[in-house]
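Why do we bother with a discrete structure alphabet at all? Because it lets us treat a fold like text: something you can write down, compare, and reason about line by line. To make this less abstract, here is a complete entry for DUF2759 domain-containing protein. Read it the way you would read a sentence in a foreign language you are learning: slowly, and without expecting to understand everything at once.
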Amino acid sequence: MFLAEEAAKATSNFSGFDIFVILFTVVIAIGLFRLLGAKKKNPFAIGFGLVSLAVFVTLSAVMVMGWMGKL
């Protein structure tokens, strides 16, 4: 039983999907900054980008806290 507990502690919380979450967060942020800097602004796209960025930043923060063992 002691060895099983040690093996469970040694496993990583990192998965391959985590890299995609970070990449999507960066892509959404770049797209939002480009939308905000455009001469002709699209309010729907800016709102959608803000909501998407908020979701992905929250997801990234929870993911990193999971890596650190804070959850």
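What the structure line is telling us, in plain words: The mean pLDDT is 88. The helical segments are 2-10, 17-37, 43-68.
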